[in-house]
UniProtKB/TrEMBL annotation:
Protein source organism: Coptis chinensis
Transmembrane helix keyword on record: yes
Record-annotated membrane-spanning stretches: 32-54, 74-103, 124-150, 170-191, 211-232, 252-277
Key words of the record: Membrane, Transmembrane, Transmembrane helix
Record-given protein name: Uncharacterized protein
Top-level taxon: Eukaryota
Matching PANTHER family: OS01G0800300 PROTEIN (PTHR33133:SF24), OS08G0107100 PROTEIN-RELATED (PTHR33133)
């Protein structure tokens, strides 16, 4: 991280952000490997294992319409969302705290990072709730436009079709932007004395001037995730063509490793984007205030020096 701090990081390109993530990993390999195995690996496994149960049940339910099928589907979805939510927040808290500790030259260890997570979790959870509200509104509007688009196909109404298509494209851009703002707000919630709606507003301010960079990273992440999911469904989950247990096991293990690496780089990129945005806006990165913020998570109260006010 010091390497990034010593140069003008506001002009970093996406590939340079990925390289910087790898450099930080190399600086403390043991700590990051343990965090990856404890938090990011379960998160990645949950994402891929979900494909094994979700689609077969979803395809089976309309045919059978049995209550126990619906119950099984709901239970699996509930546990999937709970695991995904918990490990996503835990992974974010751990990686952001570790990156910030490295930046402020604080001692970094697996145990010290884990001990701070309970204090960070509440802040991330509140920020997650506000981001979820935005996503709920977005999904409602998206569903409305999707229904209009499908209806226009049935009615052969070219005018409504074009309008609906551009609305869907515009909504996809909004989805990418809100996702970028959400992830940056998570970093803000850890590194600054704000969380919830205030963190979302702060994230929006920081993204000004760097929207293309942030959204490009989000799109690349989503595309690679979709590709991993597609390969997993085609080659690992038994279908019309059975590639054999050995091949499916090896391919499944390979995809898990790829997704783990992708999730680690994604979480690391969030931290680096935060510093890129700070540098772009010519905001001084106060190591003293950041050091105090991190000490608060370790249980030692130190008056925060940041000028950003707490807010919801």
């Amino acid at each position: 991280m010091d390497q990034t701090a010593n140069k003008d990081i506001q002009f970093l390109r996406p590939i340079e952000i990925v390289k910087e993530s790898i450099n930080v990993l190399k600086s403390y390999p043991k700590t990051f490997i343990l965090l990856t195995l404890a938090l990011i690996l379960p998160l990645s496994l949950a994402i891929l294992v979900h494909y094994i149960y979700f689609e077969p049940l979803l395809n089976l339910i309309p045919i059978t319409s049995q209550p126990h099928q619906w119950l099984e589907f709901i239970i699996i979805q509930f546990f999937y969302i709970a695991i995904l939510f918990i490990f996503s927040l835990l992974s974010t808290a751990a990686v952001v705290f570790t990156f910030a500790s490295i930046y402020t030259s604080k001692p970094v260890s697996f145990i010290s990072t884990l001990s701070t997570i309970p204090r960070i979790f509440k802040r991330l959870f509140i920020t997650f709730l506000f981001a979820s509200l935005l996503m709920i509104v977005y999904n409602a509007v998206f569903l409305f436009c999707l229904i209009a688009f499908i209806s226009s196909l049935d009615a052969n109404d070219s005018t409504v079709l074009y309008i609906s298509f551009f609305d869907l494209f515009f909504l996809f851009e909004i989805h990418v932007y809100v996702t970028a703002m959400w992830h940056l707000a998570s970093v803000v919630s850890v590194l600054e004395p704000v969380y919830g709606w205030a963190a979302m507003k702060r994230s929006k301010e920081l993204l000004e001037g760097n929207i293309r960079l942030a959204t490009a990273l989000v799109i690349v992440y989503l595309v690679i995730c979709a590709a991993i999911g597609g390969v997993f469904r085609s080659l690992v989950i038994p279908g019309e063509i059975d590639y054999g247990l050995v091949f499916r096991s090896l391919m499944g293990g390979f995809l898990v490793v790829v997704l783990v690496i992708l999730n680690f780089i994604g979480l690391s990129a969030q931290c680096i984007i935060y510093y890129v945005c700070k540098s772009y806006h010519r905001e001084e990165i106060d190591k003293g205030a950041l050091h105090d913020q991190l000490d608060c998570y370790l249980g030692a109260y130190v008056p925060l020096q940041s000028s950003v006010e707490m807010g919801m």
